[in-house]
Inverse folding.
């Protein structure tokens, strides 16, 4: 395993550096609190939380090892689900990741995970496949199944379908019109072939058939498309997002009616 790396200070920290010292500390505390809980990201992990909470505890004294590929520096799944993970990503902000002690950060690529075969109980990858070419997607999914145990669970979720892609293109166009540049992460989605629900299921099933003797596969719709769009276009509301939306979470967490932005594919070994 590699040690964590450092990249430049994030935009919020740079902006707060312009304020007088007392206000700077207050602004940073509020910004960290507000942006550490986002409805669209919390929705991403609803089915993940449900399936992990339903798994029987391990019989040994060793706790279950959960891998979170593409977790980023803001804690990944651990910011929304109470568990510990090994988080793999290409780079980490040291300042950010230190605030998430539930994550053991490992520098590496999902295309060649720096982990041994059959070394994790759960391999999770959410909203990363859409940033990759079709060949890279196949490689990443193969890596998830390589590192998971014989009785393990693999979860991969991503934006799926033509409606989701058309909405991403529309949001990017409005962002470019407003700012003169492409949306920082949607532009990567648009540069790659869109995923389709059947394509995601086939990709996972193909890798699973080479790894497990028997398995169950479930494809679950995630995040109503209209809700996702609205959450991306909040404007000034984003600065008070958590104050407004976290109290509404018990109602918002069930907003997965079609059409949806994302599909989550769950594959579990049934060798027993």
């Amino acid at each position: 395993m590699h040690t964590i790396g450092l990249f430049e200070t994030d935009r919020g920290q740079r902006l707060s550096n312009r304020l007088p010292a007392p206000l700077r500390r207050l602004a940073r505390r509020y910004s960290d609190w507000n942006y550490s809980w986002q409805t669209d990201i919390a929705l991403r992990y609803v089915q993940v939380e449900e399936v992990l909470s339903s798994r029987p505890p391990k019989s040994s004294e060793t706790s279950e090892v959960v891998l979170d590929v593409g977790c980023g520096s803001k804690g990944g799944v651990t910011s929304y689900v109470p568990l510990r993970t090994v988080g793999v990503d290409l780079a980490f902000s040291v300042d950010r990741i230190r605030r998430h002690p539930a994550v053991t950060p490992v520098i590496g690529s999902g295309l060649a995970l720096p982990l041994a075969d059959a070394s994790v109980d759960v391999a999770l990858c959410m909203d990363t496949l859409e940033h990759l070419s079709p060949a890279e997607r196949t490689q990443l999914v193969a890596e998830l199944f390589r590192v998971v145990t014989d009785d393990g669970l693999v979860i991969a979720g991503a934006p799926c379908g033509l409606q989701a892609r058309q909405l991403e293109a529309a949001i990017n166009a409005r962002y470019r019109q407003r700012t003169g540049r492409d949306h920082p992460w949607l532009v990567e989605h648009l540069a790659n072939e869109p995923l389709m629900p059947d394509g995601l299921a086939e990709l996972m099933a193909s890798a699973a058939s080479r790894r497990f003797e028997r398995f169950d596969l479930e494809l679950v719709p995630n995040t109503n498309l209209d809700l996702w769009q609205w959450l991306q276009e909040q404007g000034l509301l984003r600065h008070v997002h958590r104050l407004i939306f976290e109290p509404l979470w018990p109602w918002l967490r069930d907003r997965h009616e079609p059409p949806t932005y994302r599909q989550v594919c769950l594959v579990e070994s049934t060798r027993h």
In short: Confidence is low (pLDDT under 50) at residues 1-11. The CA atoms of residues 16 and 42 lie 26 Å apart. The radius of gyration is 19 Å.
